[in-house]
Amino acid sequence: MSRRSRVAALAVVLVVLALPLAWTLVASFGVTPNNNAQPPSWIGPPTLEHFAEVGVAEPTFWQELATSTALALTATLLTVTVSLPAAYCLARSRLPRDRLVAQSFLVLASLPVMAYVIPLSDLMRRVHLLDTFEGVMLAQAAVTSPLAVFVLHGAVRQLSPEWEEAAVIDGAGLLGILGRVVLPLLAPTVAATAIVVFVLDWNMLLVPLVLTGGDIKTVPVAMSDFFTFERELDWPTAAAALVVSLAPLALLVAAFHRLLEQFRLTNGTGLTSDD
Amino acid sequence: MLGWFAGPAVLGLLATLTTYSPFTTDVRFVGLANYAAVLRDPQFATAARNVGLLTVFAVPLELTAGFAIAWLLRRPLRGRAAWRVLLLLPWLVSPIASGVMWHFLLSTTNGIADFFLGWLGAAPASSPAGDLHLALPAVVAIEVWRVAPFVAFLLLPGLESIPRERWDEATLAGASVFGRIFRVAVPGMQGLLLTVSMLLVGLALGTFDTILILTGGGPGTATVTPALYSYDAAFSTNDWPAGAAAAWVVAAVVFAVGAVYVRVARE
């Protein structure tokens, strides 16, 4: 395939993938199609008022945005803090079946949230964590940790143990090894994992939907009740809310795209290809 | 961490053998009656059929489309970083937001399809999300739109890590594009493809967010999934035991797929 035909093919793919998003972006500025005209035309001068209307239709939207941000940040931090030692210990455990254990973490990561959220909500109620920031944060961290363990396990397996042996001779403990040897060497992978986990946390619906009841509300939960029996949000306002909820992630990924190239899924052995 | 997971899981599993519910004090042991009731419920059978079809169609399409995008991005290209970011954007849209967005994009007044149909002089078409036969294919298409970019993101490093000599050998042997895909790329990243497939199957079997707003499971029961069935049972109709039991059926299927994954990945 020549370079030119590859660029042409990519352009076609980009149009298909990005057209719905572009449609939403222009709608958020009040520019919408008039499909009743013949031929269809566009209505409306661009305006910013629909972004203000989000706050009218959903008075707590900006509060929800702050909650989502704080939740995703703390849950991501907790996931990475717990997963890195777990992944390290698993990779260096010399267990005969550490690959099987790692693959079990992947199966756990594939388990739909719905499979366990019903009993979890009851448990959270009993320990008085229902509808609290901490409750949602702990649950979200638990949901994303298996994937983080699997990815970080693959990364640790790629590290030569010699680095750690040198630190052990210098008298470093587990935390010392992790903080002074493993973390600096794996920093790009850990950061890439954190970004992916942040995206998953930011977009998570079922956990906050089931574990909250009004005090704590995230943006995805707010979107789930944009449409009720009483109301249906109009398209430009919904589009503005969609744009606001997507923009932080788009900026994050654009800013750290080099780091994200370090995100590697493996087959459980630490190798991405089978050589 | 495992305790955080396993504790509620075991308790929840045991509770599905009783009439336990947070809303009742009358708890009796009923054995497998909850499971029998769920498996006999025609609504659950429909949900299982829907999610089965969704998985069978969406996962291969996501893998194929994702692989194709990764293939196009494999070799050096001007502005490759920008292409990668732009082509990942749909995955950044949350499933619930994707449902909201497509609800409007498929509608007659603001939609994409009718805009272009209008240009062609065709009559506006009603939203496929409201059509008995088109709703499920529409959900598949929307999930492929959202997930294929993520698959491309996951597969690209695997493609890049295949040693250059392998490609050269294939080219010297006169392999076509398909020859290089099936004799170099696929064997070279079997493990990664299996891992991604496992994630995609779990994702498809748990489909919930996307359909919640887009179709709400409808029209009728055309797009009900077991996850939506569980959610409605546990939190809307207060049939907690049915919801929890149905959720465990989905978990059992995912674990069965996981057992196959672990077995195949070992070889």
How are the SSEs placed, and which strands pair?
The complex is a heterodimer of chains A (275) and B (267).
Chain A (H helix, E strand, L loop, with lengths): L2 H26 L3 E3 L6 E3 L5 H9 L3 H31 L6 H13 L3 H13 L6 H25 L4 H8 L4 H30 L2 H6 L7 H6 L10 H21 L1 H4 L15
Antiparallel strand pairs in A: 1-2
Helix pairs in contact in A: 1-11, 2-11, 3-6, 3-8, 4-6, 6-8, 7-8
Chain B lengths: L1 H14 L17 H8 L1 H32 L6 H13 L2 H11 L6 H8 L15 H26 L3 H9 L4 H12 L1 H16 L3 H6 L11 H11 L3 H27 L1
Helix pairs in contact in B: 2-13, 3-7, 3-10, 4-7, 7-10, 8-9, 10-13, 12-13
Oligomer: heterodimer
Helical content of chain A, roughly?
A: 55-70%
Number of helices of chain B: 13
Task: Classify the secondary structure makeup of chain B into a structural class.
Answer: mainly alpha
- Percent helix range of chain B: over 70%
**Main sheet overview of chain A:** 2 strands, antiparallel
Strand order of the largest sheet of chain A: 1-2
| Alpha carbon gap, first and last residue of chain B | 29 Å
Approximate shape of chain B = globular
Instruction: Tell me the strand percentage band of chain A.
Output: under 5%
Stated plainly, the CATH topology of the largest domain in chain A is called MetI-like fold
Largest interface: A-B, 90 and 101 residues
Q: H/E element string of chain B? A: HHHHHHHHHHHHH
Mean pLDDT of chain A: 88
Can you put this structure into words, describing what you see?
The complex is a heterodimer of chains A (275) and B (267). Chain A contains twelve helices and two strands, in the order αββααααααααααα. In chain A, helix 4 (98-110) packs antiparallel against helix 6. The longest helix of chain A has 31 residues, at 61-91. Chain A starts with a helix and ends in a 15-residue tail after the last helix. Chain A has 275 residues and is an all-alpha fold. Chain A has two domains: 3-47, no CATH class; 70-226 and 249-260, MetI-like (MetI-like fold, Orthogonal Bundle), CATH 1.10.3720. Chain A is 70% helix and 2% strand. A two-stranded antiparallel sheet of chain A has the order 1-2. The model of chain A has no long low-confidence stretch (mean pLDDT 88). Chain B is mainly alpha-helical and 267 residues long. Chain B has 13 helices and no strands. The mean pLDDT of chain B is 89. Chain B has a single domain (34-93, 134-266), classed as MetI-like (MetI-like fold). Chain B is globular. In chain B, 72% of the residues lie in helices and 0% in strands. The chains are: A mainly alpha (275), B mainly alpha (267). At the A-B interface, helix 1, helix 4, helix 5, helix 6 and helix 8 of A face helix 1, helix 3, helix 4, helix 5 and helix 6 of B.
